[in-house]
Amino acid sequence: MKRRFTLLIPTILALPTFIYLINGHISDDHPWLLRRYAFTLFPLFLLATAVLWQAIEDGLRKERRRAFGLACFTILFMLQIVPSYRALATIEYRNLWAEASGFAERFGTRDLILIDRTVTGDPFTMIAGPLATIDRKNAVYFFNPEDYARLDHSLFERVYLLVTEDGIGRYADTFRNRLLPIEVVSFSFPEFGTTVPYTWPTASLISSDAILFEITK
What we know:
The protein is an alpha/beta fold. Helix 1 (2-22) runs antiparallel to helix 2. Strands 2-1-3-5-4 form a five-stranded mixed β-sheet. The chain has helices at 2-22, 35-58, 62-79, 81-89, 96-104, 128-133, 169-175, and strands spanning 111-115, 138-141, 158-164, 179-193, 202-215. The protein has two domains: 2-79, no CATH class; 96-215, no CATH class. It is elongated and about 80 Å long. A hairpin with an 8-residue loop joins strand 4 and strand 5.
């Protein structure tokens, strides 16, 4: 009975993976899709590695086991040299928070800042969260222009919109002539990425110019 239960352990560990294959609760093109499988596949890989390692050691003579373990460790260590060097030599998103914090200094406690998701040049690198939690500004992520009518405007003296030039068209029908341009805000930061499959990611400089508007009443 115990032997049969042991054989079921890999199946039990893999069950959440099969559930996500049926319904991942996220779109297939979303970059965070594979994160859904990490917590289910990683324990399974650990178990499979342990079983494989034990099977290999059982097939080796005792005096060769230490040499085999040392060889595996050396190979794995050498494989990590290049990616580790690349990761340690570059700090992703360096200076981005400093730029965002400097941008936040011009706003008061009665100002509301609506921040479009593309202002930094990377839609998954948004500054609204740090501005709200670290700088204590009334900054929110803003994408749907129809949500503006649902806001309680009595809480704020001025409302601002930060958006790139390419994104202005999405808000034109809602705000029409109420967008008063204030200034251009620039962001730049290094980010890892790859354009060629099966190659090491390289750091490239992401730059973006956004326009700060005041939404007049």
